[in-house]
Each structure stands twice: as structure tokens, then as C-alpha cells.
């Protein structure tokens, strides 16, 4: 994946990184489970329940990254360019609230 022009290089906190990677691995397994359930003609209600679990898990992983971004990247950017940091924060919230 390429970084967009407005992104900065950032080293994530090791604990946060481990947390997010564990969450994403769990999500990956759940998505494989959905695929297998569809292939095996499992009852739709059960598949939909797993979709809801994946969505919730993705939101949780996103929230961990979002919290770190606000606490570190945005907070640092506020010291240098408050307007730019505010615009970035607004854009992030627009994206995650969809």
C-alpha cells in the first residue's frame, strides 16, 4: 500500500500494534468462517450474526488506531499547525462515521 501525500511516517506503539494485529487476525478468521458458511449453505441468520460480529470487531480495531492517531499524531500536529490538524480530524470523523 502506498501512503497518500498527506500521511506522515509513524511508528506505532508496540502494544497498540500487537493489539490491532491480534484483532485483525481474529477478524480474518471470522471472514473465512463466513465464506465457509456461505459455501456450506448455512442458515442465513447464523451468517448474518457472524457479519455483525465482524463489523463490531472492525469498529473496535479502527477505534484503537483512531485513539492512537488522535493522542499522538493529531496532538503533535496541533502544536505545529492547528488549522491543518483540525481539518484532518474533521475529515477522519467524516470517514469513520459513514
CATH architecture: Up-down Bundle
Average pLDDT score:
90
| DSSP E strands, number | 0
What fraction, in percent, of the residue positions are helical? Answer: over 70%
Distance between the termini: 23 Å
Strand content: under 5%
Q: Which structural class fits the helix and strand makeup?
A: mainly alpha
Domains (count): 1
Looking at the structure, the CATH topology is Methane Monooxygenase Hydroxylase, Chain G, domain 1
Q: Helix and strand succession?
A: HHH
What's the shape?
elongated
Our count of helices gives 3
Uncertain spans, ≥5 residues at pLDDT below 50?
Answer: 1-5
Task: Report on the architecture of this protein.
The chain is mainly α and 98 residues long. It has one domain: Methane Monooxygenase Hydroxylase, Chain G, domain 1 (Up-down Bundle), CATH 1.20.58. 80% of the residues lie in helices and 0% in strands. The protein has helices at residues 14-39, 44-80, 82-96. Helix 1 (14-39) packs antiparallel against helix 2 and helix 2 (44-80) packs antiparallel against helix 3. The protein is elongated and about 55 Å long. The model is unreliable at 1-5 (pLDDT under 50).
Amino acid at each position: 500500500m502506498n501512503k497518500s501525500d498527506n500521511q506522515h511516517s509513524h511508528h506505532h506503539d508496540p502494544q497498540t500494534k500487537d493489539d490491532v494485529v491480534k484483532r485483525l487476525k481474529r477478524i480474518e478468521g471470522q471472514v473465512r468462517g463466513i465464506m465457509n458458511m456461505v459455501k456450506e449453505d448455512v442458515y442465513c441468520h447464523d451468517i448474518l450474526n457472524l457479519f455483525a460480529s465482524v463489523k463490531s470487531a472492525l469498529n473496535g480495531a479502527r477505534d484503537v488506531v483512531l485513539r492512537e492517531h488522535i493522542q499522538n499524531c493529531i496532538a503533535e500536529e496541533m502544536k505545529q499547525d492547528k488549522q491543518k490538524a483540525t481539518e484532518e480530524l474533521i475529515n477522519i470523523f467524516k470517514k469513520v462515521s459513514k
